[in-house]
Design brief:
Helix content: 40-55%
Largest sheet: 5 strands, mixed
Organism: Chryseotalea sanaruensis
Distance between the termini: 14 Å
Pfam families: PDDEXK_3
Structural class: alpha+beta
Protein name: GxxExxY protein
Radius of gyration: 15 Å
Number of strands: 5
Order of helices and strands: HHEEEHEEH
Number of domains: 1
Strand order of the largest sheet: 1-2-3-4-5
Strand content: 25-35%
Shape: globular
Length: 138
């Protein structure tokens, strides 16, 4: 279990470092897509394995009802949702958590480039964590 936690911590640290580099260079005030493109370049230079605009199906009662795209899926493990707004609201936190649950991921990041200082929040999917913990006990 320690290895898995370290893996997540190390990866999220690398992603946040890339985001800080982008924010330091560009500051705030651009549209989200500009930060997304810059972060794509920075994460590539950092050697991170990722998919941009990763699309996943959304299911309700075992029926696909649509799709959603997360800005980045890093190493197939961490969802990264970007914002470029002056203040992150509860609805944005809910969106990040919904992505974790919909994609069955354990860890996600919400990164906001729209403030004077880079703002980021790490989320964990409590249901996925419980499943991992239960499978380790069995």
């Amino acid at each position: 279990m320690i290895d898995e936690k370290y893996k997540y911590s190390e990866l999220t640290g690398r992603i946040i470092k890339c985001a800080m580099t982008v924010h330091s260079a560009l500051g705030n005030g651009f549209q989200e897509v500009i930060y997304q493109r810059a972060l794509e370049i920075e994460m590539g230079l950092a050697g991170l394995d990722f998919s941009r605009e990763f699309e996943m199906p959304i299911f309700y009662r075992d029926e696909q009802i649509g799709t959603r795209r997360v800005d980045f899926l890093v190493a197939g493990l961490i969802s990264v949702e970007l914002k470029a707004i002056t203040k992150v609201e509860d609805v944005h936190f809910a969106q990040a958590i919904n992505y974790l649950e919909a994609y069955n991921l354990e860890i996600g990041l919400l990164i906001n480039f729209g403030e004077r200082s880079l703002n980021f929040k790490r989320f964990s999917n409590k249901y996925k964590s419980q499943q991992s913990h239960q499978s380790n006990i069995s």
